[in-house]
Amino acid sequence: MTDHYLQRDAAARTWKQAGGAVVGYFADDVPVALIEAAGFLPYRVAGDPAGDIPAAMARGPIDVRADRLAYVNSWVCQIAAGHLDFIDHFIISNSRKHILQLHERLLALKRPPSLCVLDRAMGDSFAASEFNHRQIIQLGSRLEGWAGAPITDSAMAAAVARYNRRASALRRFASLRETMPARLAGSLALRTLIAIRRMRCDDAAALLESMIASAATGDAVPGLPLFIGGSAQDNDAIYRAIEQAGGNVIAESHGWGPALIEQDIGDGDPFAAISAHYHHHPDFVVPLAESVAKVKQRVSRTIARRFLTCLYSADEAPLWEAPSEHHALDIPATTLADLPYTTELPPLCDRFATLMKDWQV
Amino acid sequence: MNLPSISSRLQAVEEVRALQRDWVKRTRQSVAAGGPFAICNGDEAEELFIAMDIPVLAINYWNYLILAQRKQARMNAILQAEGYPGAHFFGFALAASLSPEDAPWGGLPTPTIICGSSRNEMETRVCELWAAKLGCANFTMDFSFPSPPFRPLPREWWQHLEHNWEAMVDPARLDYRIAQERQLVARVEAITGRRLTVTRLAQVMALINEQMSIWTRAQQAIAAAPVCPVHIRDQISIYQAMWHRGSPLGVDLITRYEEEIRQRVDEGIGAYENERFRLYYSVQTPPWHDEIETRYGAVTVCCSYTDIPGLYRRRFDPADPLRALAARHMLLFDWGPYRIIDVARRHRCDAAIVVEPAMANGVSLQQQIVEAAGIPYLAIPRPAGDAEICDRIGAFIEQRLLNGRERHAV
C-alpha cells in the first residue's frame, strides 16, 4: 500500500506507457465511471505540501494571482511545472468555487492544458436536476470527443459495475476502522483512500479487498478513536501526528473521506443513474442542516470518542460548518484552526500531544 | 488654473446619508407592524423585492457600515466566541444580529427572508446560519455575479453590457437562473402574500435605467469639469442611492446629485483646495487621500466604484423583464486593465493607484497594459493609509509625476 501512496503517479504513468490516456479531476463529484467508460484512467489531483507552493503566481496570458488556499496553488504549480504531464485532460468541476476558478487559472498558464468544465447547480429543485443532468450528458460528449469514439452501453454498464464493486469494498474497508476494535491505522487508511483515486475502480477494489482480508485477521490498532473533519488532508502528516500522540483516526468527513464514493450508483439507464448519483451527492452539501446531519449520522455509526476539525489557513467553508457539526454531535469536539499546509511533523506533534493529554484526562 | 474650491459635502450626499438612517428606523417600524423585510446578498435579487414593495437591505452595505463605525474587532470577537476563528468581513452583519446592542443605527429588524448565494461557500453558510438564528426563510441563488464566465468577454466589455448582454452569459446557466428567480418570487409571494407582476417589474427595470443614465451623466460632468467638483468621499457616499434603485426615490436622489454637480461646474467650484495631479484608485475612498493631497496636491477624482452605476443599464423586453434582470444578476461587470484605462482617461487622470498582490515574475500584465497606454501605474499591496503606503505613493508621485512630466493640461 505504501508503494501506491508514495509512488502516487505510478499507476497513471504505467497506464500512459501502455497507450492509455488520463483524465485529471479535483473533487469526488466528478463521474469517474463515465471517465472509465470512455476508456480513460481517472486521476484525482492532490496538493503536494512538500512541493513548491508559491505565495504569488506567475503571470501568464492574463494576471492570475495566488489563491488564499495553499493547496490550490500547489495544484496549479504542479500542473505548470509539468509534474502532472501524464494527465491528458482535466475536468474542472463546479464542486467548490476554488475548483471552478481553476478554469481561469489553468487557461492562464503559458501552456494551458486540455480541459472542460463540469458545471453544477446547487439547488434541489427539478430545474437544478435538469441542469445537472444536461451537464453529465455534455461531459459524456466531451469525453467521446477526447477519446475519438462513442461510449457504448456495455462500456457504461461495466464501468458502473466496477464503480459499485469499489464502493462495496470501501464500505467494508470503512467498517474495519469504524467498529471495535479498529483494525487499521488511520494514516494507512488515508494513504489508501488517496491512492485508490488514482487507479481504475477494479484495481482499487482489488487493492481494498486484499487489505480487508489481511487486516481482518490482524491485530487491533490502539489509540483513542478520533473522527476528523475540516480541510481535505492531502497527506498523512496530521494522522501520523495523532498516532504519535496516542490517538487513531477511525473515520473522516473531509475531502478525502469516502462518503460519496462508497455510495452505489443506482440501477437503470446508466447516464440517468450517474446523473442522479452526483445530483444527490454533491461535494458541497446545501443546506447546512443536511450537511451536518450526514456528518452526525456517519459519526454515530463509529466508535469515535472525539471529533476533531482540522482547518488549513484560509479554508473558510469547513470553518463555517464546524460549530454546527460540533453542536449536533454526541461526543466532545474541538477545532484546530489555521494549521500550516505542511508535512512538518514536530510542530503538529506538540499540538496533538497537548490536545490528546487534555482529552485523555 | 485658479478656481474656487469648496470643502463642504454635497447636499445630495447629506440627504442620502440621513435617509439611510431613517430608512432603517422606518423599516423597523413597518416590520413591527407586521410588514415584510428582506436581506439580500448584493446584486442577487434586490429588484424582485423592490418590485414587490418589500424593503430590502444588501448584506455588504451593512458590513461596510459596521466597518465605517470601526466595529470590526468587536464583530470578529463575537464570531470567534461562537466558534468561528479568524476575521470575517462577510460575517459582520451576522455578528451584529448576535449582539444587537453593537449593531449600527439601532440594528435591523428580523427579516422575512435572507437571500444568499452559492458564489462562495462561506457566504452560503453565513446566510444559512443567519437565517437559522433569526428563524426566517433562506434562499440560495446559483450562478451569481461574479460567477466566472466560460466564454471570453470582449476587451471593451462595458460597451456591450447594455445591449448585448444575452451573448455574454452562458445560455444554460441563464435559463436555470431565470427558473430559480421564479422560484424565489413564488416563495416570497407564499410567505408575504405580496404579488409580483411583469408590468411592475418592467417599471422597476425602466426606473433603474433612468436612474443609472442620470448617474452616468453626473459622472461625465465630474470627469469633464476643469477641476474635480466632487470629493471622492462624496462620490462614494452617494453610492447609497444604489440601495433605492428601481424606485422613484432612487431617481430623485440622483437627479438632485446631478443638479448639484452641474451647479458646481457652472460656478467653477472644485472639491479640492490644491488639485495638481489627478488620480484613479482601484478601491473606494482612499485611506491615504488626505495625506497625499496635502503633500503633493494629488487628488483622487475617480475609482472603480464611481463608474459602476452605468453598468446597471440593460435593454429589456417589457414583456419579459426577468430575462434581462437575471442575466444582469449573473454578469454585472468585469474588471481588467482596459477598464482602468477607459475610466482613467475619461477623468484625465495623471496616474492609477491599484491595490494588487505581488506577482512572482515582475509587474502584473495589467500594469504593463495600463502603462503602455501612457498612464503611470502604482501597485500597492493593501487598501491602507499607513506610513509605508503613503511613502510608496509619495515616492511614486515624486519620481513619475513631479520629475517625469507636468500634469495633463486641463
Name a few traits of the molecule:
heterodimer, A: 361 residues, alpha/beta, Rossmann fold, 2 domains, 4-stranded parallel sheet, 8 strands, globular, B: 410 residues
Task: Provide a descriptive summary of the structure in words.
The complex is a heterodimer of chains A (361) and B (410). By secondary structure, chain A is of the alpha/beta class. Chain A has two domains: 148 residues, 3-Layer(aba) Sandwich (Rossmann fold); 207 residues, 3-Layer(aba) Sandwich (Rossmann fold). Chain A is 48% helix and 13% strand. In chain A, the strands form two sheets. In chain A, strands 2-1-3-4 form a four-stranded parallel β-sheet. The radius of gyration of chain A is 20 Å and the shape is globular. The two termini of chain A are 35 Å apart. By secondary structure, chain B is of the alpha/beta class. Chain B has one domain. In chain B, 49% of the residues lie in helices and 9% in strands. Chain B has 16 helices and eight strands. In chain B, the strands form two sheets. In chain B, strands 2-1-3-4 form a four-stranded parallel β-sheet, sandwiched between helices. The longest helix of chain B has 27 residues. Chain B is globular. At the A-B interface, α7, α14, α15 and β8 of A face α6 and α8 of B.
Question: Which SSEs are present, and which pair or pack?
Answer:
The complex is a heterodimer of chains A (361) and B (410).
Chain A: H1 2-6, H2 10-17, E1 21-25, H3 32-37, E2 40-44, H4 70-80, E3 89-93, H5 97-100, H6 102-107, E4 114-118, H7 126-147, H8 153-178, H9 186-195, H10 201-216, E5 224-230, H11 237-244, E6 247-252, H12 270-280, H13 288-300, E7 306-312, H14 316-319, H15 322-328, E8 333-339, H16 345-360
Parallel strand pairs in A: 1-2, 1-3, 3-4, 5-6, 5-7, 7-8
Helix pairs in contact in A: 7-12, 8-10, 11-16
Chain B: H1 11-32, E1 38-40, H2 46-51, E2 56-58, H3 59-68, H4 72-81, H5 92-98, E3 113-117, H6 121-134, E4 137-141, H7 161-164, H8 171-192, H9 198-224, H10 232-237, H11 248-266, E5 277-281, H12 289-296, E6 298-303, H13 321-330, H14 337-346, E7 351-355, H15 365-372, E8 377-380, H16 387-402
Parallel strand pairs in B: 1-2, 1-3, 3-4, 5-6, 5-7, 7-8
